[in-house]
Amino acid sequence: MNPTAGSDPILDCAAARDFERGWFEGNADREWRAMQAAGRGVGRHLLQDMAIANLDPAAPAKLLVLVGKGHNGGDALLAAIEFLRATPWQVEVGFVFGQNRLRPLALAAWRELQQAGGSDRVRAVRREAVEATDYAIVLDGVFGFQFRPPVATEAVSWFAAAQRCNPRLRAAVDLPSGLDQTGAFAADFTYATGILKSPLLGLRHAGRLRYIDLGFFERETEGTDRVVTPAILAPLRRLRPVNSDKRTYGRLAVIGGSRSYPGAVAMAVAAALHSGAGNVSAFVPASIAPALAAQWPEAMWMGCPETEDGNLAIDAGITIKQRLDRAAALLVGPGLGHEPETHALLADVLGTSSLPRVIDADALQPELFQAGRAARILTPHAGELQRIGGVDTGAVVVQKGPRTIVHAAGHRYHVIEGGPELARGGSGDLLAGLIGGLLATDPAASALAAVQGAFWHGRAAQCMAQRWGETAVRNTSLLAELNGALRA
Q1: What is the mean pLDDT of residues 404-418?
Q2: Which of 54, 150, 285, 357 could lock 330 by a disulfide, CB 3.0 to 4.6 Å apart?
Q3: How far apart are CA 358 and CA 329, in angstroms?
Q4: What is the C-alpha separation between 259 and 285, in angstroms, rounded?
Q5: What angle do CA 305, 306, 311 make, to 5 degrees?
Q6: What pLDDT is attached to residue 82?
Q7: pLDDT at 146 over 90
Q8: In the predicted structure, residue 123 carries a pLDDT above the cut 80
Q9: In the prediction, which pLDDT does 398 show?
Q10: Where do the DSSP E strands lie in 145-262?
């Protein structure tokens, strides 16, 4: 599978406008069907994400929908119907420019919402009443991607009023209205409908991003910047060949760990064991191997000679090289430490091995990742990326940050799954282990392993946040969500 088949292009607003004009060809029925799909998608995603904000759908509350003139307003109104079906909530609608300014499809959406909820659950409200009302969620559907600054005075007043009512969750349809202009709507979640627009990638007011796929890109479409979709995991969901055994799915060899940092290699190995790889072997300092083997007995823990400080010693090279002949891929770096002798060991192993490798954490040094000619996946965070000289390394680069970007074969694959729940130690070790296990399963597909692993990791974290919130969780809890994330 090519990673582009599991992703859609990200377009700027002008290109998105031209694409939609060609797609709809002025057909109002086709536009209405797309609006209904967008509304359902936004509503269902918002119902899932409200758990992250600790909102109970069974407890009576109020949803405020801010509506402009056009399609974004229609999407938001139809999304509110999902709340009427799933909750006992009241829906109140603020028409920022007045009901008489609604375009035909937005007006049809308003009528459908009224019919779904009736006058006892749906009503229009004036701006003056908003500040005195307690809304659990505010949904912004005022401006779409054809917005031109500055933000209209009426909209600024509505956004300010909605902010002063102190909602628990603020969400936007497609783009937060006003983008990052003064007076704009600031969202906690933005639900990009049909096409993910490029301004969202660096937008301060966008919050967490979700992509609502409306089927615009049914066939593989080119584009340098791409948003990864659940289709990237399709090969992992299929039935395995009935006659397969553990050799079918490859052996991953992990080199890392130290007396000071045993947890990092433990988490990487744990994630690799969940990746589908047939076998995982770990080469670690002898003093920590027994405890790690007791914790994760499915892996083969090879205790190796170590230095006085508890890092892998140069003599470990003999043990490692003798046992790499059956491996399909390498993962090096988690918990490795910075001792020169250990780095000399690793440079020797990497320089003489032809195995494709994932290079993470302490191994992200030029003299290490440049050793040998095998395919490489690098997994740097911002500081490590600066240390290795940026993304132009001749390798697949998994750039970790608030949103993960995989740089591969001239493409930038943006993984928008996951969020602040990953902002804690150990996230990168789990990611490296997943990618390493996927690479061992298909050693010729470095780019696919990187993109699949990054998406799977983020989707599992998102599931974890929806179940437990973003604060009182451990990164290792993500492992329990990998199966559900794959099946979702």
Answers
A1: 97
A2: 357
A3: 8
A4: 7
A5: 140
A6: 97
A7: no
A8: yes
A9: 98
A10: 169-173, 189-193, 208-212, 225-228, 251-255
CA atoms within 13 A on the CB side of 280: 31
Tens-digit pLDDT profile for residues 454-479: 999 999 999 999 999 999 999 999 99
Report the chain's terminal Cα–Cα distance, integer Å: 20
Overall residue count recorded for the chain in this entry: 488
Which pairing describes strands 208-212 and 62-67: parallel, antiparallel, or unpaired?
A: unpaired
Determine how β-strand 122-124 pairs with β-strand 137-141: unpaired
State the pLDDT confidence band at 171, using cuts at 50, 70 and 90: very high
For the chain, the farthest-separated pair of C-alpha atoms sits apart, in whole angstroms, at 80
Enclosing H/E stretch for 300: strand 300-304
> What number is the average pLDDT over the span 318-323?
93
How far apart (Å, rounded) are the C-alpha atoms in residues 256 and 83? 49
pTM flag (> 0.70): yes
- Asked if the model's pLDDT at residue 172 lies above 90, the reply is yes
Question: Residue 249 corresponds to which amino acid?
Answer: Y
pLDDT reading at 488 higher than 80? no
Phi, psi at 287, each rounded to 5°: -70, -20
What is the average per-residue pLDDT within 4-11? 96
Q: Answer whether residue 485 shows pLDDT above 80.
A: yes
- Integer Cα distance of 73 and 458 in angstroms: 30
**CA 332, CA 434: separation in Å to the nearest integer?**
13
Look at residues 256, 232, 270, 255 and name the one whose alpha carbon lies nearest to residue 445: 232
Q: What is the structure's pLDDT at 221?
A: 81
**Residue type for 59, please?**
A
* Token representation of residue 477: 């809890």
- Whole-number Å distance between alpha carbons of 400 and 415: 10
Do 374 and 356 form a contact (C-beta atoms < 8 A)?
Answer: yes
Which residues contact residue 202 at a Cβ distance below 8 angstroms, ignoring those fewer than 6 apart?
Answer: none
What residue ranges in 202-286 does DSSP mark as E strands?
Answer: 208-212, 225-228, 251-255, 279-285
Is 260's pLDDT higher than 80? Answer: yes
Q: At what angle do helices 427-441 and 446-468 cross, to 10 degrees?
A: 140
How many whole angstroms separate alpha carbon 334 and alpha carbon 427?
11
CA–CA distance, 419 with 407 (Å, rounded to integer) = 20
Give the SS3 label for residue 405.
strand
Across the strands, what pairs with 331?
254, 358
208: Cα within 13 Å, side-chain hemisphere: 25
